[in-house]
Protein 1
Amino acid sequence: MIARFLAVVLSIYALAGAAETRAEESLVTHKSLAPKVALELAEAALADCQQRGYQVAVAVVDRAGVIQVVLRDRYAGPHTPPTASGKAWTAATFRNSTSSLFAISQPGMMQAGIRNLPGAVIIAGGVIVESGGLLVGAIGVSGAPGGDADETCAKAGIAAVQVKLDF
């Protein structure tokens, strides 16, 4: 009788452990930027561009490319918010900086076709945001005199919040 009871208890325990293992294998968890950190990131990048005399727009997206924050300086052109958002989306979804994508997608190169994908903005200024080696979002900047200047501001924004991302 005790042996039978013990066998039933052990069977239930084994089934519960197997179900838990299947659930863990079926679900994925990920880290994402908190709204406050996304805003601080955008504000820091905007401030860096302002110090350099650039009127820009800044966009921060989550790891899936969904917009979290968009800021536009008062004299930044009307095209800058959608361009900044497009750069951030492109960086997040391709998991690479837009300057790197620009370099590998020149006409005649194997990846040239990515320039024609809907929504892709292959201009420098989109940079991925990582925490512990994991993608947590991306930032895009538009409006500085050249994509390299946009990227410099984006990287300054990341540097300003990096201590909050390193946990």
Protein 2
Amino acid sequence: MGDDVPLGLYLGLLFFLLICSAFFSGTETALMSLNRYRLRHKAKSGHKGAKLTERLLERPDRLIGLILFGNNLVNFTAASLVTVIALKLGGPAAVVAGTIIFTLVVLIFAEVTPKTLAALHPERIALPSAFVYYPLSKIAIPIVWLINVIANGLLRLVGVHPDRGDGNHLTIQELRTLVAEAGALLPRKRHQMLMGVLELEEVTVDDILIPHNDVVGIDLEDDWDDTLRIIRESGFTRLPVYRDGIDNVVGLLHLKRLVQKTSLDNLTKEQLEPLIAEPYFVPEGTTLNQQLVQFQRTRQRTAFIVDEYGDIQGIVTLEDILEEIVGEFTSEPTPAHADVQLDKDSGGYVVDAGTSIRELNRTMNWHLPTDGPKTLNGLILEYLETIPEKGTGLKLNNYPIEILQTSENVVKSVRIHAPEPGQQALAG
């Protein structure tokens, strides 16, 4: 440009180039900071800007090449203009000062400020910018193609293949983190259900089974009147049937089928035995998601959990697994807090020590540790390493616990208080 070009034109062009530089810098950060899943949702909902943005991000190498080409073009052009302006104003001596000032201006107004704004509000900046980049990407195809060929070739020389990216797939752990962080945006019940589904892969049948000593069933060696009383009073729809103990299980009796076949008043043992279904066994350690699939495949609702020696550890039902997702819903007679009673005198809770820790945490919103023993009794015995006496006190995860009743080898009941003021329960 010659000396006859007005200085104002130079300054106006420089200002325009700075705006362009800020646009390229800010939109680059915004486009790369977008939540891809929110973008995909908007695109499927018909948002035109989201659709264009999703197309651009299908090939991020091309988009980055286009943005950097434009950004460097305007920055180098602006630097040349600064040199011309500095020469017009103060000669060669002013070039150094002009370069320093221009560097600060670009850093503040064309880099830091727009990129910070874009990082804070990526959607507001990225989606409208797609209407600029999409036609530009068509116009600049030859230049962008050449840039990408050279850049991708250099990457391949060092063993990096641009077309083999990790994609946007989430692992179960990442999805769990995503759902946990979205807790404030979801109703509490729905959030708990989503977390319950995602935790099925980590929780095993051992964590939710009904221990064998708590199983209500029919012993064929018992007096027949006792058997009829159990059938009438148990309140359960399915009862295990065994001989001389649960380890000698015969099968499972479905009481609804029993009532359909005959009257309880006239029921005999000979009529009962043909109605007993074959037992369904599952090895301990089976994850809940696997067991849920197995229940569906075999059309079963109750399984006997066995250890490596074939001894029955307890039973698990389809309802138990579903309650891990949706919470308590069963129509069985046992209420959700049957093993937990409020102690009004002390302000704590009297708890049956044989209760599952997971059940206590879920129903009482407690945070007792779940990575060890499955019952409260087991947790206390592991902590104390001895059978405690009545009145013994301890603290687990900031929960004060007092032993109320013990027998020869187990803790029967305890009193638990919420964490003391100023303390929080540790994550279990």
